[in-house]
Amino acid sequence: MNIHSIKFRIITLCVLLVVFGFLFRLLVVLPLAKQEIHELVTTQQLSIAAYMADEINQKIRARQETLTRIAATYPHGSRSDSARVKQWLANAQTLSPFFLSGMLLVDPDGAVRAKNMAGHSTAYESALISDKRWLQTILNSGGPQISPPFKDTQLNKAVIAFGDSIRDDSGAVTAILIGLAQLDAAGFLQELNVQKWGNGGSYLIISPQDQQFLGASDPSFILKNTPPAGINLLHDKAMKGYRGSGTTVNAQGIEELVGIQSVSSTGWFVVSRIPVEKAYAPIHTITDYVTLAGILVTAIALTCLGLFLPHVFRRLDRTTQAIGDMALGRKPLHTLPEGGKDEAGALINQFNLLVQRIQDQETSLRRNEAKLAYMATHDALTKLFNRSMLMSRLQHSLEMAQRHRACGAVLFCDLDGFKPINDNFGHDVGDQLLIEVARCLLTGRRQTDTVARLGGDEFVVVLTDLKAPVEDVKRIAQQYLDAIGAPFNIDGHELSISLSIGIALFGNEATSPSQVLSNADTAMYRAKNLGKNCYNLYEEY
């Protein structure tokens, strides 16, 4: 071939362009993509850490608020009646699912007045009472406090205690109420352990004041001391108060991308982490694809241009025009007519395969987006709305009620006797029972109403546009009581449960979703206290 010919020059130019494009992608685009992935993954880790910290914070606050409510019910006139005090403590633990490991009533001087424990109490009393500093913290704070973590030697479980003071009418502290909770108990940190945190992701929950791991994807970390200063520099900064994201090398010598967020109510912090090697795995794959694509394109270009340049130019012009129209949006993305069996035809066919793949990926992406959108707003078990969607629809219902001067109601429903069914027949039967309960709650509801599951055996129903609010909501609540009170046949077992319903009405007055839910929750607990299997209207007390 004449090296001075236009064909040779075009071939050389094309080869140089292909090589330049390959090197540009390899040396410029891929490093930029790596930086983008780095920022994306660190942001993701920070979001995961924030989500986990918020979840833990809500669980901690729920337990603190529950303990404070229980402390407010203490029968001050029965101090000398030890049997009545013990009965009160047993009833308090029965009504609260948060302190199943035990509850203690302690005098301000540290003497145990009453206790209701699942097992031996030696480890608890040694950890909480022998050293009176924690009790003194409760006395000085005037509010609920969390103990340092310790181990239940009998169950080999990590435990923390929640403590709050009991005061008489004059404000004097008469006793200290202590509730015990296992860190890995259901409804506390257990759910975090069963979730998947991405490809190789993991998490840590750390108490800087105790210098201990309270939770981790790897259970062997729990209650172990944090690494000494100097081993993990980002960990050292976190122990001193740093919150954010970064790259670090852990105690095992593995480089990680890390997100750190505080659990505001405790002083703890959550670390979400992923090995850098896992985070950058897509870049390595793309690099291989770019290299392979560069070699393939170069070979195709040399063959096409060297053998069939005039013919290929003519056909490639038409192909380029068609692709350009699709790229600029003048025509929709579509496959091209088959171009024959030569290299130009192969290029067209490969383009058609790519178009088909893109269309398939777009279809799959739309399907996945719809699935993710559904999962983000619905409960995975019952297919009811979840808490996030409940709050959104409740906010909309409140706005519409205020705008149109209409009335609505929130029914906070909690199953009575569900836990024994779960314990005796297993979670599969319990899950099927929850699905049946959800079906009962949905029956008869309108498109504008909302039925949601908050979690566990708690459900919320939002009713809108009630013509006679009190009468309508009582009628619907009674229908629910009758429907749930009927026996359920699950896998050959005839199961009986009941329902406690708290009702909060709303109308044209301005209020928040959280306030209405809180009112309904309060009414539900009132229904529980009235004997269960009944409903209670918040405005009635």
Cα-based radius of gyration, to the nearest Å:
32 Å
The CATH homology group name of the domain at 387-540: Reverse transcriptase/Diguanylate cyclase domain
* Helical residue percent band: 40-55%
Structural class of the secondary elements?
alpha+beta
Please tally the β strands and state the result: 18
Stated plainly, the CATH topology of the domain at 387-540 is called Alpha-Beta Plaits
* Content of β-strand: 15-25%
- On the 0 to 100 scale, the average pLDDT is 84
CATH architecture of the domain at 387-540: 2-Layer Sandwich
Question: How would you sum up the major sheet?
Answer: 6 strands, antiparallel
Instruction: Give the class-level CATH name of the domain at 387-540.
Output: Alpha Beta
**What gross morphology would you assign?**
globular
- State the end-to-end distance: 100 Å
Total count of helical runs of at least 4 residues: 14
Low-confidence stretches: none
List its traits.
541 residues; alpha+beta; Beta-Lactamase; Alpha-Beta Plaits; six-stranded antiparallel beta sheet; five-stranded antiparallel beta sheet; 14 helices; 18 strands; globular
Characterization of this structure:
This protein is an alpha+beta fold and 541 residues long. Among the domains are: 73-182, PAS domain (Beta-Lactamase); 295-374, no CATH class; 387-540, Alpha-Beta Plaits (2-Layer Sandwich), CATH 3.30.70.270. It has 14 helices and 18 strands. Strands 1, 2, 3, 4, 5 and 6 form a six-stranded antiparallel sheet that branches. Strands 8-7-11-10-9 form a five-stranded antiparallel sheet. 31% of the residues are buried.
